[in-house]
Structure formats: C-alpha cells, structure tokens
Design goal:
The model has no long low-confidence stretch (mean pLDDT 86). The protein has 3 helices and 5 strands, in the order E-E-E-H-E-E-H-H. By secondary structure, it is an alpha+beta fold. It has a 3-stranded antiparallel β-sheet with strand order 4-3-5. It has one domain: Alpha-Beta Complex (Quinone Oxidoreductase, Chain A, domain 1).
C-alpha cells in the first residue's frame, strides 16, 4: 500500500493553494525522497499558479521546488545532484529560500562564461553583481 503525506496543492489555475493529502511517491534509481520541513514560494510559482506558466499538465497539482528538509525516502522527489546539506546555522525556513536564488546566481555566473572553479581574492579587485 502506498503511503500518503500532506502537501500544498493547487486545485486549478488561479486557485488558492491548500493543504491536502497526496500519495507519497517512491524514489527511482536517480532520485531521492525528501521529508519536507519548509517550502518557499518564488515569483515563478506565482506565475505558474496565476497564469499557468510554466504550464501545469494536470490539476490538482503540487507546484514549486524551493524546499528544505531531510532525506528520508518520503514526501518530495529530488535529483541527488541538486541536494546539498543544510548548514547547522540555517533553519529549514531559511534553507527553503535558497534553491531559486542559487540557481539564478549560478546561471548568471556560467552564462557570462566564468568557470565554476574560479576563485577570487580581495586583492584581485574583481566583482560580479547578480
């Protein structure tokens, strides 16, 4: 029997998010399941809720991807390469706001051609504003 968990559910385009029960997915060979402790909503989530962009294939739906939690084989699927340890100094709520912010900065960094292994010191007098 498949287990269930509570999730923030979007019942229809433009509808309000509500908490409801969903079937807990099973991870495949290239995913992990995360017990979600906190979620964050970002501008992409609002556009998806209000305008259906990016498209939502089926309603009711669970949208968004900015979460923090514990790898525990339940609640939310994630690609393991996109999962990082949350520093002890950050709460789950603080950690949940990082995914979109970090990927935005990383995309900007790589789009302008700066190699990921680049390291600057204050003596280099280099700066990037993202």
């Amino acid at each position: 029997m498949v287990g269930t968990h509570n999730a923030a559910i979007l019942p229809q385009k433009g509808g309000p998010l509500s908490v409801g029960e969903r079937a807990t997915p099973e991870p495949g060979p290239n995913t992990v399941l995360i017990e979600v402790k906190a979620v964050a909503l970002n501008p992409v989530d609002y556009h998806q809720r209000d305008f259906g962009m990016p498209p939502v294939p089926i309603y009711p739906a669970v949208i968004g991807s900015d979460i923090s939690g514990v790898v525990a084989k339940k609640y939310a699927l994630a690609q393991p390469e996109g999962v990082v340890a949350l520093p002890d100094a950050l709460s789950f709520e603080e950690g949940a706001i990082l995914p979109l912010a970090v990927i935005t900065a990383l995309t900007a960094w790589t789009t302008i051609g700066i190699p990921l292994d680049t390291k600057y010191t204050t003596q280099d007098r280099q700066a990037v504003l993202i």
